[in-house]
Every structure is written in C-alpha cells, then in structure tokens.
Amino acid sequence: MKIIIVDDSKDYREGLRFYLDKLGGYEIIAEFSDGEDLLNYTEIYSADLVLMDMVMPKIDGFKASQQLIQRYPKIKILAITMFSEETYLLDLIEYGIKGCVFKFNIFDELPKAIETITHGKLYFPDAILLKR
Fold it and tell me: What is the DSSP letter of 126?
C-alpha cells in the first residue's frame, strides 16, 4: 500500500514512517508539512492512502482533504488529530475523510484504521465527540 504522510511536525512524520516500515506492507511515497505542498505534488494519484494532520499552517487538513477528494475521488484519507473536542465527526465525513485516529494512540489504532478504510468502511474511534 502506498501512503503519503502530511503533518507539520517533522519528528511525527519520521515516527510514523519508522512505525509503518516496521509493520511492513506499506510504502511511504511522500511526506509533506502542510496541505499546500501536498496539493502541489504531481504524483498524488499514485497513493492509496493519505495520513492527514488536521491542524497545519497554510492549508489545513480539512481544506486540503476537500480539494484532494475533488481531484481524486477514489483516494482514501485518514485524519490524524490531537483534539477530540475539536474533531467534528460529521464534518470529517462530509469532507470525504474515511476515518480518524488520535495522535496520542495512533500506534494502537493505525493498523485497524487502515485495514478498515481500505475495505471500504469508515473508521472513527469511540472517544471522538459528535458535534455540529
């Protein structure tokens, strides 16, 4: 599976890359620090999955996801966030994002989340707050 990581923390991106390399079966094809750089990447179409931080400079994860899905409707996006109280489940779904994991327990939930959304289902942790 080909994955793009988008997060404004270089250390976090490196940690995710290391973790996914250890799991095996995943190829990180690109990394970006914000949504603007992602949207300028000409090889997005080759990704199966984008791991997208929601809070970033320039273009945030919500806007980047919306534009990405308009251009490439088949791409799957898994939101990564630190804030359950700021994560709006319905908004994520309306933007076309297929799932969400929290940064604080990503290593526990990421394999299940990836498996779930690659099989066409939505994945959201139980602790996510439903707000509108």
Answer: T
pLDDT tens digits, 46-97: 999 999 998 888 898 889 999 999 999 889 999 998 766 555 667 777 888 8
Fold of 2-118: Rossmann fold (3.40.50)
pTM for the predicted model, two decimal places: 0.90
User: Which distant-in-sequence residues (6+ apart) come within 8 Å of 74 by Cβ?
Assistant: none
User: Taking the domains of the chain in order of start, what are their residue ranges?
Assistant: 2-118
Which is it for the CA torsion 68, 88, 30, 76, positive or negative?
negative
Q: How far, in Å, CA of 108 to CA of 105, rounded?
A: 5
Which tokens sit at 76? Answer: 């799957």
Q: How far apart are CA 126 and CA 56, in angstroms?
A: 24
